[in-house]
Structure formats: C-alpha cells, structure tokens
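Continuing the series of single-chain predictions for the mutant panel. This is the parent chain; the variants come on the following pages.
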Amino acid sequence: MPEKVIEIKDVCKTYFMAGGMKQDVLKHVDMTVERGEFVAIMGPSGAGKSTFMNILGCLDRPTSGTYILGGKEVSAMTDAELARIRNRMIGFVFQGFNLLMRRTLTDNVALPLIYADDTDKAGRIKRAVEKLELVGLRGFTDRYPNQISGGMQQRVAIARALINAPEMILADEPTGNLDSKTSDEIMLFLQQLNRDRGITIVLVTHEPDIAAYAKRLVRIVDGRIAYDGDVKAYMEQQK
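Parent structure:
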C-alpha cells in the first residue's frame, strides 16, 4: 500500500480582522499526497493556494482540521516542534531564491545544517559541495550569488532544499523570476529529482505550462479543491 506523506483532513483557515470581520480562506479541504508524487497546486489569485502551501510547509496553522505529515500530527505542535519538522522533513524552494548575497554558494547550501546541528563544519561543507555537484554546479562552490545567473541561483536554492534529505520539496512559484528557457531547465531538473530519486514534490504555480511538468494537478478555487486528478486530463479539458 502506498505510503502517505501528507494527509489533510477537513482543514479550514480563517483570518479574523478588526471590527469582527473574518475571511474564510480555506474551506473544508481534504487531500493526501503519497510518497514519490509530483503534485502541482494551481488556482486564481486569492483562491487560497499560498495559504494552503504555508500550512503544508508548517509555516502556518489551520484554524480547524487535521494535518498529518510523515505520519505525525502537526496541527497542534509547538513552534519549536514545527521548526524541527520544517528543518528535517521539508525542503523549500521559493520564487525569490532567498540566498545570502555575502555568503558563498557552499555556505548558502550548508545553512540548514547549522540549524540541524548534527555535523561539524567540515562535514557541512562536504555535504553542501555534493549537493551543488548534484544540481550541476561543480566548480562554482566559492562563487557568490551575484556572480551567477538567476537560473543557477535557483539551482543553489534546490541544492539547499535537498541538504537534509527531506521527505518532500515544497516549491512556491519556483520559476516566477526566470525566463521561459531557464524555467524549462529548472522544471526538467525537478522532474528528474522526482523520477530518479523518488523525491516527493509539491509545486504552487499559476502557469499551466509549469503545472504540466507535474503528474497530478490540484486546482483550488474560492478556498475549495475544484479539481484533483491527472494533469494531462485537465489540460485536455481546457482545450
């Protein structure tokens, strides 16, 4: 039986504002993701997909409902427990790369290991160099982010996401700052990681051509899941 990495059960997210106003952003969402899946989350602006991604990444908590990550109920964990979960189980890739400009590429990739506190400096550097080589950046270890292209910076961010051998990668608009050719290169590399290494990937995007690289599409509209199924089948429906 396939192993579930994510189990979302009846999750709601409500933001409460001044004057007693409230906004229901997610409404009774149910979703599971099995180990090794490549899932794209799409939806119009304001649909709730970014809020959903924040909950999946343990950066925010649901107002109600259950979130089980890697077999552990995380909905009611303390902030410290959530931080450990994020560091050990989730690799993040963001639109803006989020690299430290005054640190080398090796230092940027090794950064999560400092928070994990499970190896010495030499061990951290060795693992970071290995991950840079994995993403095709052999020979760039001593460069700084402003000395390489945007596409290469995103590869550094992917190497950083992989450094702790996470259960899954969450990629939030990872091609949003890249041209179309570089976007294709990054998406092909994510596909390769998913196919060859079995890494679970959950991707948020508003671009159908980027979502098409995934195997499964979850479309969120007005805080609810409006479609959950095969990417190619959905794309054919839209023609």
